[in-house]
Amino acid sequence: MSKTCNRGLSASASLLLLALMAGAPGTAWAQRGSTAPAEHANVEPINHLPNPYETVRNWGTLPDARTWGSVSAVNVDIDGIHVWAADRCGANSCVGSDVDPIVKLDPDGNVVQSFGAGLILWPHGMDVDSEGNIWIADARVARGQELERFPEAAGIGSSVMKFSPDGELLLTIGTPGEIGDPPTHLTDPNDVLVAPDGSIFVGEAHGDQFLDEPGPTAIGRISKYAPDGTFIMSFGAWGYEDGQFRAPHSFAMDSQGRLFIADRGNRRIQIFDQEGNHLDTWYQFSRNSGIYIDANDVLYAIDSESDDNYNPGWRKGLRVGSAATGEVWSFTQEHVSARASGMGGTGSMGEGVTADAAGNVIAGEVGPVQGLTKFVPRLTRADDSMPTEAPAGGWGMPFAAGLLVMGGLLALVKVFGGGQPSSA
After folding, report:
1. Who has the most CB within 10 Å: 121, 150, 217, 356?
2. How sure is the predictor about 208, in pLDDT bands with cuts at 50, 70 and 90?
């Protein structure tokens, strides 16, 4: 499923959100944050909302007893049922590996298709377009010792690739193995998104989020391409202000065609139109590594890095809310890990995120735990099975009715609940 809202959720997902919104004593939402630089955003941390999910760690089984490596690229298929993920070849890089990093999983977590061996170095972002093609953002080039051991790695990395559903390479944006500027090159592309009209958006660069001051090579750039890969324009720069970025790490698009960008280094989401005009800035979803918006404008925002150094007061976790209003509905806290997270603390949470037609949320884990995590709605019975085809009218039809009821419940909560509940 594309990150541009081609499918909705099933009725079970609507029940989940109905229950969440109807539970007024435990429900909260936050207003939009200040448009000042992230360091000065006056937003109370949102760490204590209801958690509507059961966490299923180590979801998905790779073939040949392969062990999962780091995963940040994950997206649901256009059927709303299968899930695509890009494994970093059992490690945190595919340099020197001969395994297929791109895998397609069925609802039980079994791999039904794989491809991409030898073509991808560091899969970081993913989209599935309206035709079912898989797009991969390969976010770095090989480094010194890697090139010494595996000189063939010089020809891969720092590019965006379009694959057919059966794994044929159809298009490459950038020059694999080289960094630079559009139109001929890319520098460590984080993510890729294909809009409904076929326009392609690419965000660069990855490591510059840790800079305090812009160096001569600092990049915070969004580039737009035509459906055939022809360069159209770039916008943005490294920095703290609206329209600037410190690592545009993940993309999503809502039903209005607005482009949501997880500006991770600045601990916020920025919203743009498709011509690069800044529309809004939100801080209430925390310091996100991954974002996903479904066809009903439900926003899934996953935070894998917050700690007292990088985002004081905020916890790693999954926050779910409304892309239409900016309200935050739920919070699922990080997993407990005996091994310290690379960003501080001992908790771990996914970096990439998507949601299927049944309302399950699937996260790609980079570390300290790796592989995939599935967040299953608590209202889903154990004997519920995934549908094999969309209902008449598409997945969005049953959920749309649920949203109407949910809106009424929300209004009642506001009227009888004595105003806006606490946001933390």
Report:
1. 121
2. confident
